[in-house]
Amino acid sequence: MNIVITGANRGLGYELTLAAVQRGHKVIAGIRSPQCDGKLLELISRFPSQIETVQLDVCRQETITRLAEKLVAERQTVDAVINNAGILLSRGVAIEEMPMEDVVRSFEINLFGPMMVVKHLLPLMPNGGLRAVINISSEAGSLSNAYGGDYPYAISKTAINMFSKQLKKYVKDRGIRVYAIHPGWIKTDMGGEKAPGDPAESAGSIIDVLELKKEIDPEAFFINYKGEPMPI
Fold it and tell me: Which secondary structure element, helix H or strand E, spans residue 180, and what is its range?
């Protein structure tokens, strides 16, 4: 599979890239920086023919357009998109103290970014087979389990869930699967050191979803990394 992963240089994005290439897939690794470094650079040295890094800032539509044009020029198709890039701002901040710029920024990265990626890459996806769009969401986006905090993050994740449901219906006749996936509370820069979950385990299970190794209700669109329905 040819998989585009945003935010691929660290955290869950890195683990998704690692899990994918270990199973023989090719990854187009989107990163904000013009050059990669650290663990991703080391991973490229191990799998040089399977990882292609591209500068991709989901808040800058021109970088997404540039990627789409590059793929078209190279006659590459996209089998799967994992919209992983995300941000968590104003954690624990009361609504009375909320900087509204944090809300705007959260929507730019957590919602508008994935929408723009899909806008430009969906035309490059063939129909059927293993094709899928996965939007990394969160249990914080559940309306029924709203907990009255983390407003920018939670509300933007509720919105990405809605977009996922709309997109699922839109591409149904093309045989493209669409999921909003809660990866669990995992130990990353965003999740923090107290998080109980292993990002490598979560990433492996998400790749299982891509590879049709999980039995998932065909009507489900908001699921956890194990493929189980999440409360909407």
Answer: strand 177-182
For residue 111, the one-letter residue type is L
Cα–Cα distance, 86 to 180 (Å, whole number): 13
CB atoms within 10 A of CB 217: 10
Beta-carbon contacts of residue 71 (< 8 Å; ≥ 6 apart): 28, 77, 78, 121, 124
pLDDT tens-digit series, residues 21-57: 999 999 999 999 877 778 999 999 999 999 999 999 9
Return the DSSP state at 104: H
- Which residue in the block uniquely carries the two structure tokens 């699922």? 168
Q: In this structure, are residues 55 and 33 in contact, taking their beta carbons and an 8 Å threshold?
A: yes
Secondary structure (3-state) at 3: strand
pLDDT tens digit string along 181-200? Answer: 999 999 888 888 888 999 99
pTM across the whole model: 0.96
- Please name each of the domains of the chain with its CATH number: 2-224 (3.40.50.720)
Helix (H, G, I), strand (E, B) or coil at 198: coil
